[in-house]
Amino acid sequence: MATFTIELPDDEAQQLAEAAARRETTPEALASRWLRERLVHERERAAGSGKPMSPRARRAPESGE
User: Fold this and answer.
1) Are 55 and 38 in contact (CB under 8 A)?
2) What's this model's pTM, rounded to 2 decimal places?
3) pLDDT (tens digit, 9 = 90+) per residue, 20-30?
4) Which CA distances in Å does 10 have to 19, 21, 42?
5) Angle, to 10 degrees, between the axis of helix 27-46 and the axis of helix 10-22?
6) Quick one: 41 exposed, middle or buried, by C-beta within 10 A (0-12, 13-18, 19+)?
7) Nearest Cα to 41, choosing from 57, 27, 26?
């Protein structure tokens, strides 16, 4: 398994830590999840499937309006 090191400004590291805490996970686990979701999104776009959407938009329930 590959390991990556990223550098974040202190304010962004704090923001990541707060987002992880709200989701009851670690900053490392949250960043890993976001990266995997982004890679899936990029593969789907490269394959030309559907309209470009963020992972969050794909998870949102469709409105019946």
Assistant:
1) yes
2) 0.68
3) 999 999 999 99
4) 14, 16, 28
5) 90
6) middle
7) 57
CA dist 14 and 38 (Å) reads 21
Backbone angles phi, psi at 38, to 5 degrees: -65, -40
**SS3 state at 4:** coil
DSSP H helical ranges for 1-65: 10-22, 27-46, 55-59
Structure token digits, residue 26: 């670690």
Task: Please give the Cα distance from 27 to 16 (Å, whole number).
Answer: 6
- Write the pLDDT tens digit of every residue in 9-58: 999 999 999 999 999 999 999 999 999 999 998 998 888 875 666 777 77
